[in-house]
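Hi F.,

I've been meaning to write this up properly since the lab meeting, where we talked about keeping a consistent format for the predictions we share between groups. The idea is simple: the sequence comes first, exactly as it goes in, then the structure tokens exactly as they come out, then a line or two of notes. No screenshots and no reformatting. I'm using this chain as the first example so we have something concrete to point to.
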Amino acid sequence: MQIDAPRVWVPVRGGLPIYLDLWAQIPDLAALQSVIPLSPALRRAIGGG
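Output, unedited:
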């Protein structure tokens, strides 16, 4: 039995979208947000409050 992890594709203006595994550990959320603006809902989904 295979269970797909929750994931999201984040659009990037002028480039390819970025794939985020929502179960992954993100060690430095602030650094990620400095590169990718995350919505409040997405920050909650990945455990950033």
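Notes:
DSSP finds two helices and two strands in the chain.
The longest strand covers residues 7-10.

If this format works for you, I'll send the rest the same way.

G.
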